[in-house]
Structures are given as structure tokens and as C-alpha cells.
Amino acid sequence: MTLKGNALVGQSGGPTSVINSSLYGVIAEARNHSCIENVYGAIHGIEGVLKREIIDLTRQDEGTIQGLTRTPGAALGGCRYRVQDEDLERIFQVFQEYNIKYFFYIGGNDSMDTAHRISEYAKEIGDGVLRVIGIPKTIDNDLPVTHHCPGFGSCAKYVATSVREAGLHTASMYTSEPITILQTVGRNTGWLPGASALARMDEEDAPHIICFPEVPFELNQFLGKVEDTYRRVGGAFIVVGEGLRKADGSYVSAQADEVGTDAFGHPMLGGASDYLREAIEKNLKIKARNVKLDICQQAAMHFASARDVKDAIAVGRSAVKAAVDGKSGYMVTLLEEEGATSFSELEKVANLEREVPREWIDPSGSYVTTEFLNYARPLIQGEVEVKIRAGLPAYVKLRKIMV
Amino acid sequence: MTLKGNALVGQSGGPTSVINSSLYGVIAEARNHSCIENVYGAIHGIEGVLKREIIDLTRQDEGTIQGLTRTPGAALGGCRYRVQDEDLERIFQVFQEYNIKYFFYIGGNDSMDTAHRISEYAKEIGDGVLRVIGIPKTIDNDLPVTHHCPGFGSCAKYVATSVREAGLHTASMYTSEPITILQTVGRNTGWLPGASALARMDEEDAPHIICFPEVPFELNQFLGKVEDTYRRVGGAFIVVGEGLRKADGSYVSAQADEVGTDAFGHPMLGGASDYLREAIEKNLKIKARNVKLDICQQAAMHFASARDVKDAIAVGRSAVKAAVDGKSGYMVTLLEEEGATSFSELEKVANLEREVPREWIDPSGSYVTTEFLNYARPLIQGEVEVKIRAGLPAYVKLRKIMV
User: Fold this and answer.
1) A142 is an active site residue
2) What is the value of ipTM here, to two decimals?
3) Chain A residue whose CA is closest to B290
């Protein structure tokens, strides 16, 4: 049962504020298991494996390793590379060369597909070659099976904070600049725009209208809601998910076509809030501004969720424990309780998306229900103490000690 | 010399994270002077005076008053109303009705023009009618005479933090999404894009290229710099001021014309980063994304500068002391030392803009010098402890107790 060798960990897809906390979890847990001789890190995920860009994580300063739980971005580098069939042989050559017996891949839907294919290939080659465990991360919160995704809580906390702050700002300028549209990330699901509802303190507060990618967008209905809100409170604060679509499935974002698609064929979504702003100004003749926090949402470590950091460390640790115990071909999942984990077969999560349940969106289609709020609220609890140097958060970088 | 009566305070222009700290300074200092009987607040600045929407600030809960120093937006409401000649008589009628002897106006360049006109009108009518003191605020940091403006430090701290975080994020995705353009506010001056340079820890860190409104934009030169950076570090992080202009003075923002102008004839600037993103993608065929933090910059109380809050309280307090001492027609200015204030005649600051000195921008035109960094760094020091409730900052609202 015991498999002696090295562990390799990679980060994949877009980073989250806590993707490095999962990396920390892997490194810290590996120390408890003597069968894992060294922990190596692949630079830019599977791209680094293919290019033999592999660094030694056991020879970093302890302060740097600890600092990973307080540093945004992907310390090893992320990637959006789609593994080709012909890559697999190469990958296993490199694994053999570096005596890799444990492979941990931290990522979202697409990355779990990569992990799954590597795991399947390992099974074909034979037992004892490699154990593969996927570690979830995605601010989109759209992975199936897991109760929630590491990264979502911090992003939701930052989005809700930004909406509360920008909402107060907007309300104080209703007589001259009455409308703000804030665009969240989250691709085809509305977990993040929905979480902005946590910002509301009183009935008249932001957000007033939430546009979910799950609810087909109807321009006239939307404009009617904006006008109603404007008449009722004197302005309107709208939150829109980047992946907002019309009934025919096309993205409202005028830019979607121009911007093109990424390596996995997903559209690069840019302009949902631009579209809504123009629609309001042209049709209602009311001034509107739009906010595109974009990657600042995935990187806002300075106001991350402590709960999220704990969960992210837990999935990293659980992955190592499971692999050492003989598990392979699984992704760690999170349960409702803080830091509690379970597992799902990789094939059950790879390439799949979990939408916000329709019953968690209210009948109007433009706000969440109490169930949604009760689900999201625990995930944004607790503040992370980042180190401050000269007035700014001090973050760490891994040294590129090549193996 | 002693003038007995009520004080009226208004907030004008766009809010900053610390505009309510100045309001707090006025209210707290007024308590020390028995000649000020009540402190009233005008809702939406001078608009509230014209509409007799005036609330009692002496009858608010003490917790709310204290909480003003930790609350973004303009608690009284801001405005962008340009006072007309025919308004002045009406304004003074209202002042007389409410026995207003002290008028404090918290605002930027345009608001100082309003204060100046009211002050001049008071002089015409006669001595002892009204004392007027302007209290500076603007994240743009473009008021002349004052060493810096309350609001700038907090905005700079948030921008630099966002650039450090989004910079780490971008660097970890250089192999797939190599370029980020982050747009700051700040109208025609480059104080905020310049302050983003505080984010850089190492030579290869973000920001790599800063586009200052003070430096005429040349597309080919810009593209050359982007290509150089891309070749040197594998990607590029660009910070652009919203008011970026070409040599002929026109805004690069394609939207500038469509979006129109505000009440003071200033263009509503939206799209400098959209323009740069398109220029890069079309000409260099490299994927780029853009971030528009927009009003989140002016409202990011959750990571405001403690130094800025202290300065903002100080200008509020100094305004009251000066008015009680008989001064009128002045704006409070800040000196280099924390909380130290002086004064400038309102006419010397109204409607004027202070640009970043050319010698504080390096010869390339796309980065700051050490002098700039030494100027800006002290202004972002110290963190403000906001109250947290259920994982989010808890902010206060004034009760609308009409006089």
C-alpha cells in the first residue's frame, strides 16, 4: 500500500485569493508522511511538466511557505493549457524522471478534466505508477458535488464589500449620477452576483437588481425594473454576472464575439456591464456608470475570508492524506461544516458546471432568496490578517529552485 | 468678533472614503465653541439649501457621529450642481431663515467655486452676515496650494494594493493571459496612476507602464513599450489615468464623446482602458484584459489610510476654528506634516487643477521618479479599523431629522 517517491503539485486555471493556501496545505501535510520524499512544484501547471520547469518546494524559507496562506495569485503560476493525447506520454516520462508518485492538481472544472485524463492514463499503465488527487478551487463556485469551492468565499466577501461601499457612494450621488452597474466574474453561473446581496443592510440599499446568467435576459423587462427602482429610491445599483445571456443563449456582451475564446473554448467575457450601461443611457436617458473589478475580485487577499483560507488549507491537506492512504482519481470536496472534506470521482466533476438552483433566485428573477443568503453568509466570515509593510500588504514569492 | 448662530455644512462633488471624516471634524469641533448653537447639514450640498432639505446634526446618536470616520460615501449626499447667479439670493434667504452664520463646504475644485461665490456674495451684503470656509476633498489630488488633498491617500492605498494583487495574479497567468490594463480615476491629472508605482516590490513587478494624463499619448510609442515589457518579463501590467489624452488634447477614450459632460462641463470619462485593450489586441495580437475599479476607488473604506482619516478630520476641525476666529473666504489646506493645516484664499483654488510636476515623471514618460514615491508614500500609511458585522464592514447612516 505504501508508495515511496516524490510529490508534484501544480496550480491551474485562473488563481483565487486562496489557491496558495491549498498549496500550503499540500506542502504542510506532506511533511507528516515519510513516504513522500520531496514536494516539487510545476511552474504554470501542466505546462511546467511538459517543459520540465519544476521547482523544489521542500527547500523554500519557512516564512515563504507560511506566507502562502496570505498571498494572492498562483505562486507556482497557473495555466489554461488543454492537454492533448500526445502530451500524456511525455507527462509520464517526466513523472518517471523526477520519480513522481503523487500528483496533486489544484484547479477548477477544466483542470479537473486534466487531472482526470492523467489519472485514467496512470490506470492504463498499471498500479503503483501514480496517485492523482484533484484539489478544487474556483471563485465561480460552479463545481458540482462539493458544497462550495475554495476561493468563492473570499471573492464573495470582496464583491459584497465593494457593493456595500459603492452602493453608499452611489446613493449619495443619486441627484447627479443615479445608476451604477457592477460586473462580477463567475462565467455562466450567478453565485457571485447573488452573493452581492449580502451587502444589503436596509430595504432601499444596494444591490437593487441582480442579473443572473441562469435567468435569460429580457431587455424591456430589465429596463422596467430599472425605472421602477429609480422612481422608488431615486437611483439604482445593478449587479451583473459577466456571463449574462439572452433567451437564445447568446451573451449580451457585445464584445464576446470580438474577444474570442480561451483554450477550452469558453468565451472571454468582457462587456456585460458596458452593454447594460449603454442600454440604460440610450433607452431611459439616465446617466449610468459601470464598474469592472475583473481580476481584482480573484486577488483581493487584503480582505479575504478567514473561513475560505481554512477550507483551502483543508482541501490541500485532505488530498495528501487520501493519496498516501491509496486513493487516486478523486477530487477533494468540501462539506457544509468549516474545514470538513469528502471526495468525488474526478469524472463526476470534470467539465461540469453547477448553476444557482432556480428556487434560490426569487420569482422576479432578479434577487436571491433567504436560502441563498443562508448558504453564502457563513463562507465570508472572518478576516485574514495580512502583513503590512509601508502601508501595503506584504506578499511572498517562491524562489525558483529548479530540481 | 464673536458671531452667534447656527452652522451649516454641506458635502459636494463626488464622495471620497474620508469625506465623512471631515464632516465629523466639523461636528466635533463645533461642540467646543458656544457661539455655534446648532450644526445643520444640507442634503446633497447646495441643492439641499435651495430645496430647504436641511437636517439636524446635533441630534444624531453619538455612535453614528463617531462612525462617520469609518463610513464611505457622502453621509449628507453630494451634488454636482453649478450655482446660478439667481440662486444666490435664494441661498441667503434660506441662511437667514435658519439663522446660518457659518457655512462649511466640503468639496473639490468645482465646490470651492461654489463656496467662493457664496463668500463673495456675503461680502457684498455686509459684514457679519456669514462666514464661509471651504474644506478640501478630492481623490484626484489636483487642488492647488494644499500639499495634498484628503481622500487621495486612501484612494492611492487602495489602487496600489489592487495593482500589487492584480499584478501577482497577472504574472501567474503570463503564459495564457499576459496583459492587464487597470484604469484609475483622477480626471486630468496622474496622481493616482502614479501612486500605483508604490505597489512594485521587485524590478519585474507591476506596474510596468503608467499612462499619465499629463503626458500626451502616442500610440506607436505605447505599443513599443508594451512589446518591450512583454519580451522582457513575459507579460505587462499597465495603469492608465481615465483622462489620458492625445497631443491634440482629445481624450483617447472612444466613449468620451458619447458619454457627454457633467454640470461643470467636464467630460464623463469611461473608456481609456477599453481603448488601450483594443489597441493592444488589434496591433500586437496579444490577449489583454482591463480593470475599471471606478467608484470602488473612492469608496474603499475597508482598506483606507489612517493618515488620510486624520488629515480629513483635521481640515474639518481647522475650518470651524478659523471661522469662529473670524476668517471667511478661505479653504483649509494641508501641510506636509500629518494633521497640520493652513489656509488659502478660495479664489486661488476654485476651478484650478494641479498636475503632477513633469520632473516627478521619469524621462520615458511612463513611470514616476523617487520624488513622487517619497511624496505619496507617507499618505497611505496606517490601516483604519472598520467595524465588522457578519463578515462585512458595518457602516452608519445619518437619521433624516429635518430642521
Assistant:
1) no
2) 0.96
3) A294
Burial of B3 (0-12, 13-18, 19+ CB in 10 A): middle
Q: Which of A225, A141, A222 is nearest to A185 (CA)?
A: A141
Residue A85 CA, chain-centre distance (Å), reads 27
Residue B264: its pLDDT value, please? Answer: 63
What's the mean pLDDT in A100-113? 96
Grid cell 439667481 in the structure block, residue:
B86
Suggest the residue from B137, B295, B377, B395 to mutate for an interface test with chain A (most A CBs closer than 10 A): B295
At B322-352, the pLDDT tens digits run: 999 999 999 999 999 999 999 999 999 988 8
Written in H, E and C, the secondary structure of chain B is CCCCEEEEEEECCCCCCCHHHHHHHHHHHHCCCCCEEEEEEECCCHHHHHCCCEEECCCCCHHHHHHHHHCCCCCCCCCCCCCCHHHHHHHHHHHHHCCEEEEEEEECHHHHHHHHHHHHHHHHHCCCCCEEEEEECCCCCCCCCCCCCCCHHHHHHHHHHHHHHHHHHHHCCCCCCCEEEEEECCCCCCHHHHHHHHHCCCCCCCCCEEECCCCCECHHHHHHHHHHHHHHHCCEEEEEECCCEECCCCECCCCHHHHCECCCCCECCCCHHHHHHHHHHHHHCCCEEEEECCCHHHHCHHHCEHHHHHHHHHHHHHHHHHHHCCCCCEEEEECCCCCCEEEEEHHHCCCCCCCCCHHHECCCCCCECHHHHHHHHHHHCCECCCCEECCEECCCCCCCCEC
* pLDDT mean over A372-383: 98
3-state SS class at A246: strand
Which triple of cell numbers denotes residue A143? 463545481
pTM: 0.96
**All 3 cell numbers of residue B212?**
499619465
**Type of residue found at B28:** A
Q: Do B77 and A173 touch (CB under 8 A)?
A: yes
**CB contact A279 to B (< 8 Å):** no
Contacts of B270 in chain A (CB under 8 A): 289-290
pLDDT tens by residue, A146-176: 999 999 999 999 999 999 999 999 999 999 9
**Chain centre to alpha carbon of residue A321:** 23
Domains of chain B: 5-150+302-352+381-393 (3.40.50.450), 152-297 (3.40.50.460)
Measuring CA to CA, how many Å separate B378 from each of A326, A380, B153, B163? 55, 32, 8, 18
Q: Report the chain B residue with the minimal C-alpha distance to residue A297.
A: B166
Closest CA to A308 of A136, A76, A188: A136
Chain B contact present for A80, CB below 8 A: yes
Q: What is the pLDDT of residue A269?
A: 64
pLDDT above 70 as % of chain A: 96
Residue B388 with chain A: CB contacts under 8 Å: 383
Q: Which residue of A has its CA nearest to B77?
A: A172
Residue B107, classified by CB atoms within 10 Å of its CB into exposed (0-12), middle (13-18) or buried (19+), is buried
Catalytic entry in B110, B113, B140, B308: B140
Among B75, B175, B381, select the one facing A44 at the smallest CB separation. B175
The C-alpha cell at B357 is 510636476
- Class of residue B297 by CB neighbours under 10 A (exposed 0-12, middle 13-18, buried 19+): buried
Report mean pLDDT in 10-residue bins for chain B, 403 residues: 94 97 98 98 98 97 98 97 95 97 96 96 90 98 97 98 98 97 96 98 96 97 98 98 94 58 61 92 94 98 98 98 97 98 94 94 98 98 97 98 95
Cβ-based neighbours of A318, under 8 Å, separated by 6 or more: A25, A332, A341
